[in-house]
Each structure stands twice: as C-alpha cells, then as structure tokens.
Write a structure and sequence with these properties.
Number of strands: 19
Number of helices: 4
Largest sheet: 7 strands, mixed
CATH architecture of the largest domain: Sandwich
CATH topology of the largest domain: Jelly Rolls
Strand content: 25-35%
CATH class of the largest domain: Mainly Beta
Helix content: 10-25%
Distance between the termini: 94 Å
Shape: globular
Order of helices and strands: HEEEEEEEEEEEEEEEEHEHEHE
Structural class: alpha+beta
C-alpha cells in the first residue's frame, strides 16, 4: 500500500470512531409528527399519536375547525386540541420514543401552548352546550407502554394565555428508564371541582439530553464594575446626576393601591400595586404581596363588569430579552393568582412591558425599585 494511502487509512481508522461518538452525543430523541399534522377533524388523535383518554369518552381533536376553534397554528397547518371535562375526565396522547429516557439523566423539549377562547361542546354532566374555556395545565408522564403513568416528569402552570407561547418541559426520570411519553391536559390543582377547559398544543421539539445542573432559566449575570486608573495629569471629571427618566406614553392615571375604589376609574385608568413584591430576577409571588392582591381580588368580585390587564415592568438592569421575559412572568403570576382564586380568566389579561416605561430614574436604588413594579389597567367597565 503506498505511504499516502496508508496514512489516509490510519487517519480514517482513528477519526471515524471519534466523529461517530460526537454524533452519538448530539443525537436527539425525535417525535413522530411533532407538529400534530393531519386532516382537521373532531375526535381523533393525529397520525403517530395514541389516544390515552377514557374509553367511554371521545378522543382529542385535530384543530382548527371543530367546536368553533379557529386559532391559527403556531407551526404547520394543524395542532392538537385537548380538553378537561366536568365529569372528571381529561384527554391525552402518547408516543413510543425513538430511544428511552434513561434513569437519573436530564432532558428537555419544548411545546407551543395556548388556550382557545371558544371551544363549544356539550357538558358531560348537564348535556347542555358550554364553552370549554377554563384554563388547564399540561402534565408529562413517563412509562413503559402507551398511556402508562409510571412517573410524572413535568407539570406546567395553568395555561391562561390565548396566544401561542413556547414552554420548556424539563424531565428527570428518577424511578426508571422510560420508552413512552404521555402528554395530557389536567385541571388546576388542588382541584376543588372538575370543570370544562382546553389546551392547544403544537410544534413539539426534539428531546435533548442536558446537564442536570443547568438552570431552568438562564439569568444574565450582572457585569462586574470596570475600574480604570485615572490619568495622573488630569483631575477627575465630575458628571452631573442623571435626570429622572421620562416614561414613554405613560397611561393617563396612576394611583397607589392601598384600597381600590371604583370612584374616578374609567377605561385606561392604571393602578400601581406598590406592595406586590418579588425576589430579584424571580417571579414567584411572596407572602407579603397577598394583602395587596386581595385588594385587587375584592375589587373584581365587587365589580363584575371590569376587565383588566396585569402589566409587569422592570428597571434597566436586565438585558432587553430578560427584562421582557421577567416582566411577562411576573404579570402572569399575578393573573394566575387571581384566576386560581376564582376570577374568570376572561376578565384578567397580562402583559410584560420590560424596561420600556420607567416612572423614575434608574440611577438610584430607590428609583430602580419604583420602576420594577406591577400595575393593573382597566380595559373595560360598564358605567
């Protein structure tokens, strides 16, 4: 064998296994028909997915088109419609995975989720037509067969949004290795009574293995202070203090929410919730916030014609993307809290504004604290 060919052969012998190993590490577990594509129709699981609902109940739906569901897909032409019912039944679909999820390993994948404003069907308890519009959640189960629930691997919050959002499902099998995955709709918990609700599901990503120590939300680290030596020949420059930031298109009325009164409020009015607190870069509601949230709850209970928006705002410290994500998550936490207390989801919307609308300077700690706030805006009220 000539020397050149021999060298190529030796390089290939060593390089091919290395490339194969690298490709193996990057290999993803893929779903069959991850975008739930099929002919739109009632009561049939999409191709590649197995119905895991109760045998006496109808299967999930391939939407849009049935039960007055008209939402545009987030990906492709169709998506999956799942419901929960007032007779304590719910829908789900399962699939055998191309490779198992190993015990004590961590994985993640994403789903696009939202809620349909209209999902009209018959109540299983009354036989009358009702709107299956109450928010529900998604549960992810691992098992050894279709519809087998060996271990619940993930549970989303209530899906209240009526626009498509991408949710990350992080799963960590601890009781075994699983070759099947089940995606099901479920009631808010604790479940005081079963109800009629829906979740729309689209655009499942591949399942990738991740480091178990990876944070669920990648939070930006604050930049370390830059310390520069002053030139010896020049005196230090004294800079003027930053003037208070001017809000952009700030809503017309802002009031502190010690006690919310209908008097003086109208469409577009804004009430600042000064006593709703969150830990830094977090969106979990603290116990100290409950009295202020109860004021909002009482106001909505006493004024059933009012529809409002929860608005989240941050100071200028986070990046644009993180500020948007954080402010939206905080607004959603407040909306979810009110809905869990019994306020209709149709009366509570939420929106994150990031750092676009400061009400004070970001040059001081006190100003930054005021800018990092939650507000409610009156969207509609009769009278």
């Amino acid at each position: 064998m000539p020397l050149t060919n021999k060298l190529r052969w030796l390089v290939g012998m060593f390089l091919v296994p290395v490339l194969a190993t690298a490709q193996q590490k990057e290999e993803l577990t893929t779903f069959i028909n991850p975008s739930f594509e099929d002919l739109p129709k009632c009561c049939e699981a999409p191709t590649g997915w197995y119905n895991c609902g109760k045998s006496e109940e109808s299967p999930p739906d391939i939407q849009p088109g049935s039960f007055q569901v008209t939402k545009t897909p987030s990906h492709g032409e169709t998506y999956l419609g799942l419901v929960v019912r007032d007779n304590e039944t719910w829908e789900g679909v399962a699939q055998r995975l191309s490779q198992p999820l190993e015990q004590d390993e961590c994985y993640e994948f994403t789903l696009d989720l939202c809620r349909a404003e209209l999902y009209l069907s018959l109540s299983r308890t009354t036989g009358e037509e009702v709107n299956y519009a109450t928010p529900a959640k998604i549960r992810i189960w691992g098992g050894m067969g279709y519809c087998d629930k060996r271990e619940m691997l993930y549970e989303t919050p209530l899906i209240t949004t009526t626009r498509w959002l991408t949710y990350t499902m992080r799963v960590h099998p601890k009781k075994g290795a699983y070759t099947y995955l089940l995606i099901e709709a479920y009631f808010k918990t604790p479940t005081l009574f079963p109800y009629n609700g829906n979740i729309l599901v689209d655009n499942a990503s591949s399942i990738k293995k991740i480091d178990c120590n990876m944070k669920p939300m990648q939070e930006p680290e604050p930049a370390p202070p830059v310390i520069a030596a002053a030139p010896p020949a020049k005196p230090p420059v004294t800079r003027p203090k930053s003037p208070p930031a001017q809000p952009k298109s700030q809503p017309e009325q802002v009031a502190s929410a010690s006690k919310i009164s209908r008097s003086g409020l109208k469409k577009g009015s804004v009430i600042r919730l000064d006593k709703v607190y969150f830990d830094a870069d977090k969106y979990v509601i603290k116990s100290e916030s409950v009295p202020a949230l109860l004021e909002v709850y009482d106001f909505l209970m006493e004024n059933e014609d009012v529809v409002l928006e929860i608005g989240g705002h941050t100071n200028n410290r986070p990046t644009e993307d993180f500020a948007q994500t954080l402010s939206t998550s905080r607004a959603k936490s407040v909306a979810d809290w009110l809905i869990a207390k019994g306020i209709s989801a149709d009366r509570v919307q939420y929106k994150g504004y990031g750092k676009k609308y400061p009400i004070d300077t970001n040059a001081t700690a006190q100003g930054r604290k005021r800018n990092q706030r939650v507000e409610i805006k009156i969207l509609s009220m009769n009278g």
